[in-house]
Amino acid sequence: MYKSYAVFIGLLITIMVTFNGALAKYTNQYVAILIIHMVGLISLIIILILKREKFKLKKNIPIYLFSAGSIGVFVVFLNNLCFNSLGASLTLSLGVFGQLVLASLIDHYGLFGLDIYKFKKKKIIGFSIILLGLVTMIIY
């Protein structure tokens, strides 16, 4: 079931990046990022109200985890920038490859206190095929 959700996430990310990039064409990068995050905040507030959930924070949350919001702003900015120069497919393909590389390092070393999932040499075949596909997309 979670693998199906992950594919659905990929579809949603594609729509999101496309809409974000188009919005940046109508406004500018910074106004688009502000609108995107304000709409996200409003959506989350509505969800919390509908679910009748209270805003609670646990104690002792590592401070670096709060940087995800800033990273999100940077990601949206770069996605918009790349989308308008490279198009949706190349922007998303290169982005997914970057995610794959970093996620493999995080898994292999158990970074950020996560469980360790050692990198298996068989995965190099998949990485190579993906890299070949990216090179093909860039050239053609």
Question: Short description, anyone?
Answer:
This protein is 76% helix and 0% strand.
User: What is the N-to-C succession of helices and strands?
Assistant: HHHHH
Cα shape: globular
* Percent range of helical residues: over 70%
Largest sheet: none
Which residues form runs of ≥5 with pLDDT under 50? none
Class by SSE composition: mainly alpha
Number of separate strands: 0
Per DSSP, the total helix count is 5
Q: How confident is the prediction overall: mean pLDDT?
A: 93
Indicate the multimeric state. single chain
How many domains? The number is 1
What is the distance, rounded to the nearest whole angstrom, between the alpha carbons of the first and last residues? 36 Å
Percent of sequence in beta strands: under 5%
How would you portray this structure in words?
Helix content is 76%, strand content 0%. By secondary structure, the protein is mostly helical. The longest helix is centred in the N-terminal third of the chain and has 25 residues, at 2-26.
Key words describing this protein structure:
single chain; 140 residues; mainly alpha; 5 helices; globular
SSE order and pairing:
Layout lengths: L1 H25 L2 H23 L16 H19 L1 H22 L13 H17 L1
